[in-house]
Amino acid sequence: MKYKVVDTGVPIIFLHGFELDSRSLIPFVEPLFHNLTGYQRIYIDLPGMGASKGEDLENAEILVQQLVVLISSLVKDKFILVGQSYGGYLTLALLEHFEKQLAAAFLIAPMVIGNKQRRHVPAIRNEYVHPHDAKQYSDGFLDIDVIASQAKYKLYQDRIMGPLLDNQSPKLDRFSQSPNYTLRNGIRQKKYNVPITVLLGKCDNVVGYQDQQEIAKLNARTEFQLLQNSGHNLMIDETNRFLTLFSKFLRERQIN
Predict the structure, then answer these.
(1) Distance CA 47, CA 248 (A)
(2) Residue 155 class from Cβ within 10 Å (0-12 exposed, 13-18 middle, 19+ buried)?
(3) Given a cut of 60, is residue 75 above it in pLDDT?
């Protein structure tokens, strides 16, 4: 798997969502580190996506093992994991392998149930858009984002649709619709001594916000933040709120 390393310091491993790549994360979080020093950012592109497009996905078990090998080669001490959507699911799977090394985990609209029919999801609602103005936006944008404006639409095109169009392939489609998409035995249910912060969108019609309460079973110190005006792309819907919460998360977990 290909990855990008920025700066030195306490490592933060970033795992993006399915069919996306690190371009969906880097533009959002990098500006924070202009004033927040002491962190090394490692952005991994999952197989079949981004810079790792030439690599094949076999199944979730193998993918987790590949990530274990890669991360073990990159970090030797305490580090932080950040997972977006499917990357959040993988982050939960990695808790078992890095419990002693993980300082904390930060999950952005994490997937917890692979089967879309079994997810409890709310209906999307579009805020701040007149029906006439809706014609200027794509259906894909209005189907998943809550706050519709030209500025939000530009973010969606650049940071979501751009990577999606570049990465979409029959192989990835088949993978996401097969049992290989998730771990055969699911996420191991045990208590981990790793603080977990979970960001969820109240209008997330992709992975929802209710099923994620299961994450609390993994750690008594799990913190949930429900963003009222966000869908699955909460980094776009409530960018400032996301940045505030992520910055707070990092400042509260300074690692010496």
Answers:
(1) 31
(2) buried
(3) yes
Alpha helices (H) along the chain: 26-29, 60-74, 86-98, 139-144, 150-156, 162-167, 170-176, 234-237, 239-252
pLDDT tens-digit readout, 6-53:
999 999 999 999 999 999 999 999 999 998 889 999 999 999 999 999
- 79-84, strands of its sheet edge to edge: 3-6, 39-44, 10-15, 79-84, 102-108, 196-201, 223-227
Report, as an integer, the average pLDDT of 164-192. 89
Q: What single string gives the DSSP state of each residue in 3-24? A: EEEESSSEEEEEE--TT--GGG
- Dist. CA 61–CA 200, nearest whole Å: 25
Q: What tokens appear for 50 in the block? A: 């981004």
